[in-house]
Amino acid sequence: MTLRMNSPVSIVSLDVDQARGRLTELTVIDVRTPGEYASGHLPGALNIPLDLLHRALSVLGDARPELLLVCASGNRSANACALLAEHGVPTATLTGGTNAWAERGHELHRPAGSTRAGWSMERQVRFTAGAVVLTGLGLGLRHPAWRLLSAGVAGGLVFSALTDTCGMAALLSRLPHNRPRPADLDATLTALGKRVS
């Protein structure tokens, strides 16, 4: 399936079988947070978080072979593909992301030295939303105004579903365990640059 954007570059979606069959022909970029990437990624994938993708535009524009962008479910990688398409960079996205890859029984790699699996962003959002709702309800027993905290989270979740965005995920991605160290991104860009040349 190909999605046309306002730019002359099209975005291609590959299913798990197509991507697996072409994995050696693709440069795989995982746009999740470093914590999510550490929890397991496609073999050979490089980590460039979505919010730092703009720093890699010049290198990604020269990348060969074809770029395959990956995230947990395919939503963030589709957004990343759209961003790159605006800059004339042809890309593909993995339908269903690493979740679909793992569901098909394919191996996920972890970075060397990774001692524990990080929580996916979706899991972090569910935990945080649940904890805030329970806090609001608990404090609401002492003072009813605290229930507004729970109502606010519920409203945010509805808005998130309607717009396919997530403000809570944007906030959580700024936490230290979800942020790459500058040297990590620089090393990734260096490795990507070597693949280009």
Please write out the topology.
Layout: E1 2-4, E2 10-14, H1 16-21, E3 27-30, H2 34-38, E4 46-47, H3 57-61, E5 67-70, H4 75-86, E6 91-94, H5 97-103, H6 121-140, H7 147-163, H8 167-172, H9 182-196
Parallel strand pairs: 2-6, 3-4, 3-5, 5-6
Antiparallel strand pairs: 1-2
Notes on the structure:
With 197 residues, the protein is an alpha/beta fold. The chain is built from nine helices and six strands, in the order ββαβαβαβαβααααα. The protein folds into two domains: 134 residues, Oxidized Rhodanese, domain 1 (3-Layer(aba) Sandwich); 45 residues, no CATH class. Helices cover 47% and strands 11% of the residues. A six-stranded mixed beta sheet has the order 1-2-6-5-3-4. The longest helix has 20 residues. It is elongated.
Compact description:
This protein is α/β, with parallel strands linked by helices and 197 residues long. Helix content is 47%, strand content 11%. It folds into two domains: 2-118 and 180-196, Rhodanese-like domain (Oxidized Rhodanese, domain 1, 3-Layer(aba) Sandwich), CATH 3.40.250; 121-165, no CATH class.
Features:
single chain; 197 residues; alpha/beta; Oxidized Rhodanese, domain 1; 2 domains; 6-stranded mixed β-sheet
